[in-house]
Amino acid sequence: MNKKLLAILLLLIAVSTIAVVSAADTQKISGVEFNVPDGYTFDADAGNTFLQSLEKGKVSDVGVFKNSNGDSVFIMIYNDAPKNSDFPDDYKFENKTISGKNGTFMSAPSRMNVAFQYQDGDKFIVIQAMDEKVIEEILK
């Protein structure tokens, strides 16, 4: 009887641990859930600071993930569909599907980052990261 109780207790602890770890691996931004990439943490203060620096009314929310190398990922929730002119002139635009999301992939040889724009319901989302693999990880 004690062995069964111990086994049930261990199972409950394992399930609780998995639930806590899983909850820590995602972050909601304006009601949309994103995966936190390996090695990154969510930085709410940086998101608020960045949001304050943007043109009023265009972007409703910003989430920022940072890693120990100083790399940042910006997730911006736009009120309306962004236009190509909202992005740097040297960006090249390509229709692409990343992790099942159809959108526009943006890159420039002179820049050290890429961006991906897509629509999720009534939200227009732009993710800017160091490379496409990080964006894939966020959208898994």
Tally of DSSP helical segments: 3
Total E-strand runs: 9
> Ends: how far apart?
43 Å
Q: What is the level-2 CATH architecture name? A: 3-Layer(aba) Sandwich
Gross morphology is globular
- CATH topology-level name: Protein Transport Mog1p, Chain A
Report the C-alpha radius of gyration, rounded: 19 Å
Low-confidence stretches: 5-24
**Given this structure, which CATH class is correct?**
Alpha Beta
Helix-strand makeup class: alpha+beta
Please state the average pLDDT score: 79
Largest sheet: 7 strands, antiparallel
Helix content: 25-40%
Number of domains: 1
Classify the beta-strand content into a percent band: 35-45%
> Could you give the order of strands across the largest sheet?
3-4-5-9-8-7-6
SSE order: HEEEHEEEEEEH
Describe the protein's architecture and organization.
With 140 residues, this protein is α+β, with helices and mostly antiparallel strands. It has one domain: Protein Transport Mog1p, Chain A (3-Layer(aba) Sandwich). The protein contains three helices and nine strands; from the N terminus they run H-E-E-E-H-E-E-E-E-E-E-H.
